Amino acid sequence: SQLVESGGDLVQPGGSLRLSCASSGFPLDYYDIGWFRQAPGKEREGVATVDSSGTMTNYTDSVKGRFTISKDNAKSMVYLQMNFLKTEDTGEYYCEAGYGRGSLSAKLYPYWGKGTQVTVSS
Question: What does the pLDDT look like over 2-12, one tens digit per residue?
């Protein structure tokens, strides 16, 4: 079983990126999925989550209105569309699976991939 993130890049402030997470061994109609990020010297923080039904999403306040989490169960893919990026969005982004039920706590998502780096800089 694994989660593989992709799509990270260097982008200017105000730009957009779409992160992808390919899930194998973690059925998306059974697991809740979250995107988490970690900046150097900081703790990992929850960015956005979607529950197994796909009907409930949750976002940390700093990304509301800018980021959108979505998933395609048939393709076993989870996405994070990030618009109007800011320098403070810089970090390693991880796709994590668990039973968070909308929570942004990383403790409730015990399975994660290797991450993809997002750098927002001019």
Answer: 999 999 999 99
113 within 8 A of 95, measured Cβ to Cβ = yes
Is the model's pLDDT at 113 over the cut of 90? yes
In this structure, how many other beta carbons lie within 10 angstroms of the beta carbon of residue 60? Answer: 16
Lookup: tokens for 89 = 């969005």
Average pLDDT over residues 45-74: 96
- Burial letters 84-111, b for 16+ CB under 10 A, else e: ebeeebbbbbbbbbbebeebbebebbeb
What does the DSSP assignment read for 50-109? E-TTS--EEE-GGGTTTEEEEEEGGGTEEEEEE-S--GGG-EEEEEEEE--TT---GGG-
d(CA 41, CA 21): 24
Q: Are 106 and 92 in contact (CB under 8 A)?
A: no
Sign of CA dihedral 23, 48, 116, 112: negative
- In this prediction, residue 96 carries a pLDDT of 96
